[in-house]
Each structure stands twice: as C-alpha cells, then as structure tokens.
Amino acid sequence: MAARRWGRRKAWPVVIGLGVVLSLVSYLAVRYIHSPTPDECRANGPDGTTVTLDPDQASHAATIAAVAHARGLPERAVTIGLATAIQESKLRNLSYGDRDSLGLFQQRPSQGWGSPAQITDPVYASGRFFDALVKVPDYLGLPVTVAAQKVQHSDYPEAYAQHEDMAATLADVLTGRDGPALSCTVSGAMADGATAAGTESSASSEESAPAGGNGAAGSVDAGGSVPQGHAGVAAAVRREFGRVPAALPATGGGNVSYPIAADRTATGWSLALWLVCHATELHATSVTFAGRRWSSTASDQGWTHTASASAVVSSSGEASTLAVTLS
Questions:
Q1: Is residue 239 domain-resident?
Q2: Which of 6, 168, 177, 216 satisfies CB 3.0 to 4.6 Å to 123 for a cystine?
Q3: Which residues, 6+ apart, have CB-to-CB distance to 194 below 8 Å?
Q4: Which domain holds residue 86?
Q5: 161, 144 in Cβ contact below 8 A?
Q6: Are 65 and 277 in contact (CB under 8 A)?
Q7: Is residue 109 part of a domain?
Q8: Contacts of 99 (CB under 8 A, 6+ apart)
C-alpha cells in the first residue's frame, strides 16, 4: 500500500513537468507562429544606418519633412526640425507636457505659439516651428542643437544634439533623395482596409485646425472623420506638400494619381514615402512610383518591382505617374 502511494507521489512531478512543457510549446506557437508582424517603419540611410519607428511616429516625421518641402526649405532645416521633435515628444502628438506644453514640439499657448487646438495639429505645429527657425540668423550654419535651442528656449539646451544622427538619416530618406529607402510593415487589419484605432496622432474633433489654419493631412476634419477618397487624399497632399503637381482627375474607384516630371524624381519619392507613412489614416492600400510598388497586403516585402513603370505625357514632357490605390 505504501509503495503504491510512493508511486503516485513520484508520478506527480512528471505530470507537472509535462504540463509546463506543453504550456511553453503553446506559448511559443502563439507568440512566434500565429501573432502578426508588429507594425513598424524602417528608414535605411545611405551610410547603412537604419532608423525604426512605429507608424504613428513615422507619420509625424513625414509631416515635418512635407511642411518643410512646401516652404522650400533645405534638408538641413528638416534635420533640425526632426531632431527637435524627437527630443521634445519622441515624435508623438502629445496632449500634455511641462506646464501648458503640447504637441510634437511641446509649444506653449501661453507663449504665443497658438491655441491648444492649433498646436496639437502636426502641420500647424511644424509650420510654426519653421516660421521661427528661418528667423534665426545663419541657422543653416549653426550646430543642430544651437539652432533648435534658439527656437525652443529649452531648459536642456544641449539635449537636441543626441538626436542629430537619427534626424539626419530620416531627413535624407524623407526628402526622397534615396528613392524607396523607407517602407512600413502593417498588420492584417490594414491589409483589409480597416483604420487603425487609438493612435496618439488622432486628434479629437475639438482639436481640428481652425479655418484658414494649417491642419494636418492625417488629422480629423470638422466632422471628426479622416479624409478619404480621391478628394480627401488630394486635399491632404495639397495641405502638407503644397508644391507638388495637382492630382490627375479621378478615374473611378477613388484612386489618386500624380504626374511627376523627370527632374522631380526626389519630390515624387518624398511624396510616395509620405503616403506610405500615412497609409492607415488615408486608407491607401498601395503606392506605385518609378517601377516600384508598396502594398499593404505584402508590406513585409517592402517596395517590390512592378512589371513596368507607368508614365503619362504632361506639358513638360514625359512624367512618371505616382499612383495611390485606396480601399
């Protein structure tokens, strides 16, 4: 009788051990086989450096670069703007901060930067930063941290320097000089055309830009919805980029196309990358330019080669077509 009890006692560790092993196998199966690839955007610099952001951060970085493009500012200005936003908010459109600081650049309504609704609009905030930056004498010749500090008047004036390399890589990529050097991996929900919910960049309807102000392309409109369809995407691009050719007339399905002249390839890539960074809120399922295509259904493959590069004939000659497919 005692022997049988001892046998049962010896069996318990075996049963428990087997349970632990099965639990571990189940966890690994769920974690590494069935879980989706995390959403992220990767920018690959010409010197081999890589910057990884989540889509929320990438959309704000692309907006800062677009606003600088619309104002005709050089890449150095983009680097300064990005380094500042990385330090101030980690490229998040924050609804809080030190005292009354808000937004990407932690600008303060009490210091004349604008209303809370304006400051939490990424395009408005970026525009106000660049308005102040270009007034700094010889800002292009100053160290990044000095130029940023002359705008921000931070309690930590040297802090911006630590982000210069990251900002310079993003500026190089987002200005389009290196072609398809940025790609975003999106989840299955995006592949099905669903919107991402709960990102920090999504403002409430109360925070949309006032009439005549600089609103964010990806921000909500007065009715609280994200701009969609041909007209919505065209308006968003026009609002942020400004200095790009007008969208071609809609051809059905709500898709959007832009003729990009041969000597504006960098601009075309800058816009293409901006569209990928904002793909979720704009409901863009593919972006095609210069013989390359990014697709939400195969986003893990990055920019793939297309069968042939499409082109249209414009008043300035042959131009590549930047095409956006919408869900």
A1: no
A2: 216
A3: none
A4: 41-174
A5: yes
A6: no
A7: yes
A8: 108, 110
Single-letter amino acid, residue 179: G
- Tens digit of pLDDT per residue, the chain (327 long)? 444 444 555 555 544 455 544 454 444 443 333 344 579 999 999 999 999 999 999 999 999 999 999 999 999 999 999 999 999 999 999 999 999 999 999 999 999 999 999 999 999 999 999 999 999 999 999 999 999 999 999 999 899 999 999 999 999 999 999 999 999 999 854 444 433 333 333 333 333 333 233 333 444 343 344 567 899 999 999 999 987 888 998 877 678 999 999 999 999 999 999 999 999 999 999 999 999 999 999 999 999 999 754 544 444 445 689 999 998
Distance of CA 87 to the CA centre of its chain: 17
Answer whether 285's CB lies under 8 Å from 272's CB: no
What pLDDT, on the 0 to 100 scale, is given for residue 6? 41
Q: Is 84 exposed, middle or buried (0-12, 13-18, 19+ CB in 10 A)?
A: buried
State residue 187's pLDDT score.
82
317 exposed, middle or buried (CB, 10 Å; 0-12, 13-18, 19+)? exposed
Is residue 284 assigned to a domain? no
Q: What do you get for the CA distance between the two ends of the chain, in Å?
A: 72
The count of structural domains within the chain is: 1
